[in-house]
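chain below, 288 aa
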Amino acid sequence: MLEYNLPRYLPSAEELPDSDETPVDNELQELIPGLLKAILLMLWSERMDWLFAIDMGIYYHPDKPPIVPDGFLSLGVERFYDEELRPSYVLWDENVVPIFVLEVVSQNYRKEYTTKLAEYEALGVLYYVIYSSRRRRKPHLEVHKLVNGKYELQEGNPVWLPEINLGIGCERGNYCGVTREWMYWYDEQGQRYLTPAEQVKQETLRAQQETLRAQQEAERAQKEAERAQQETLRAQQEAQRAQKEAERAQQETLRAQQEAQRADVAEQRVRQLAEQLRALGIDPDNLA
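prediction:
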């Protein structure tokens, strides 16, 4: 909450300039916070209670110039309050001090480690982050946390920010076609969240793998169908062979029956002939 003695009648955000109109010294002052914002837009796509602004003026008094960090994050505010978006960030309208402020040091030193640090400290910004890739003997990334009204430098890379539920750190990567050290958000285990381009690439790779897996499954299913078809054909051939064997067995049975009938007829004739011979007084059993 604000603790300033402000005038009774205050201008609105629409009546105040959106920045100090000072051009940036280096593209990194836009690209680095732009990357952080791009990751948040995907990471917090369902949330509407946050604002990450780039080069936007923070007004803390109507008669004083705004503070214009390279980037800042506020939680518990409306992400969009109308279709025109915010022209500036006015503390007496928002009633929420940014929780995170980022300054990217360029070739032209702009008092990031002195005056601005004191301003953000007085304003009550919980985390003040300074990034300078030109530093040789000190870490490129400094994370200052407000403790009992004074900033304390936090150790590590990345640094976990529990109030935001994110970590902040830097490492080499590629963004906008440029390979260098960039700032990223991290989870509590220190795993870096992917950039939008990396997420698209990951999803594309996953889709390609799914497509390949589907093709392999289709090929496997086709082979199984062909194998089943061959088994069906083999079964049909076996059934036909069995049917032919059954027909042959049936024919053999019929032939055997016919032979048996023929033998019976011949035996009857022999008996009849023997009886006729006996009737003539001839013994058929003693015929020479």
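Residues 196-279 form the longest helix (84 residues). The helical segments are 28-43, 91-94, 115-123, 196-279.
thats it, cya
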